[in-house]
Amino acid sequence: MTAITKADAAGKVMVALDYPSASEAEKLLEQISGIPCYIKVGMQLFYASGPSFVESLKQRGFNVFLDLKMHDIPNTVKGGAASIASLGVDMFNVHAAGGSTMMEAAMEGVHSVNGLAKRPTVIAVTQLTSTSQQMMNEEIGIQGTVEDTVIRYAQLAKQAGLDGVVASPSEVVAIKQACGVSFQTITPGIRPKGAALNDQSRIMTPSEALKQGTDFMVIGRPITAAADARAALESIIEELTSYE
Ligand SMILES: O=c1ccn([C@@H]2O[C@H](COP(=O)(O)O)[C@@H](O)[C@H]2O)c(=O)[nH]1
Fold first, then answer.
1. Catalytic residue ranges
2. What residues flank ligand 1, with Cβ below 6 Å?
3. pLDDT at 1 over 50
4. C-alpha to C-alpha distance for 12 and 147, rounded to whole angstroms
5. Which of 24, 26, 69, 215 is found 20 to 30 A from 181 (Cα to Cα)?
6. CA gap 215, 140 in Å, rounded
7. What ipTM score was computed for the predicted complex, to two decimals?
8. Residue 215, annotated ligand binder?
9. What pLDDT does 3 receive?
10. Separation CA 55–CA 175 (nearest Å)
């Protein structure tokens, strides 16, 4: 049974360009050219190549998620959010652990920018997908289940006016129940069957994540570390279009 089209499947995949330089990121972009996926730029690439690389992605028509996970005092996050929004990115994020005033400040920063064709989607990181239940309880010192913490952060983000959250695919159903179906879920921790776990802890396969109702899935190393990145991405898209 075909669930979604190839174009819809590709649009749900955010390829994480975790590279040390723009030239290395460009090599990957060349390999996957023509596949209409979202592009995620994180700290490694942004700190090395800066706003100009992000602007060049936008000039070439990519949908861009700038994943800088801001977590600072409200005034600083407000300014950071204004600067990020001015770059014209489609999505960016803050840490929900910064609290509601900080998240509201991020929204104020976005709204302070004049002349945007469309404001970016603003989302909050709940619990990193590398965090296990045991790590959260024993090391970080947060009691209760990871799911309960994720839901609490998601509700806080929604109340602060944000558009969605970053969480693991296994929390998507509970987030949608608590915050509504239009509250977006962006899920890293995606591993095709047999792929290396690396440092991820709370994972699902692409088709399992789709079944949970995730809006976007962030995928890095299963594509970027593959011998043939294009084939790896195409195989993920194929899995999404043919899941039952
Ligand atoms: O909770 C989070 C938040 C962000 N990420 C980012 O997603 C990608 C995942 O890369 P993989 O290589 O597929 O593990 C990476 O850029 C992280 O910074 C996350 O993994 N978990």
1. 69
2. 16, 18, 42, 125, 128-129, 166, 188, 198, 200, 218-222
3. no
4. 23
5. 69
6. 28
7. 0.99
8. no
9. 67
10. 32
